[in-house]
Specification:
165 residues; mainly alpha; 2 strands; 57% helix; 5% strand; Alfin; Alfin_N; transcription cis-regulatory region binding; zinc-finger; zinc ion binding
């Protein structure tokens, strides 16, 4: 859990870079490293959390012992639901909680370093331009891209047929 403990981003760009690194690690856990992630989330173990780090690494571990923790904590007990639901549904649940945690960490840094309204809005816009972990894990990103291309193809075909008249 201390892979990101020494690093404190202070600007909007640094906070965004921190978020992108943490996000990449969590996406890796829920996609390319999914078998390893699944094995580490043993329901027989105590309350486990998925942590993403700024260096694009991830780990499943117990929550921080310090109260309150230095950073907001990710969802607690992700391992308990693992065997009680379909794997894809469980991964989607972990993904949506991971998205919420990333926002909490980003805005924690924003508050801690005194971001004003403009900085917070800029940070949120930068974050919002990325697909969510949930969208990536569920394949919604691909569906949205297909829908956008079919809508633009449909509208360009429509404008071509209108211009012939």
């Amino acid at each position: 859990m201390d892979a990101g403990a020494q690093y404190n981003p202070r600007t909007v760009e640094e906070v965004f870079r921190d978020l992108k690194g943490r996000r990449a690690g969590m996406i890796k856990a829920l996609t390319t490293d999914v078998e390893e992630f699944y094995q580490q989330c043993d329901p027989e173990k105590e309350n486990l959390c998925l942590y993403g780090f700024p260096n694009e690494q991830w780990e499943v571990n117990l929550p921080a012992e310090e109260v309150p923790p230095e950073l907001p904590e990710p969802a607690l007990g992700i391992n308990f639901a693992r065997d009680g639901m379909q794997e894809k549904d469980w991964l989607s649940l972990v993904a949506v909680h991971s998205d919420a945690w990333l926002l909490a960490v980003a805005f924690y840094f924003g508050s801690r370093f005194g971001f004003d309204k403009t900085d917070r809005k800029r940070l949120f816009t930068m974050i919002n331009d990325l697909p969510t972990i949930f969208e990536i894990v569920t394949g919604a990103v691909k569906k949205q891209a297909k829908e956008k291309s079919s809508v633009s193809n449909h509208s360009s075909n429509k404008s071509k047929s209108n211009s012939k008249g």
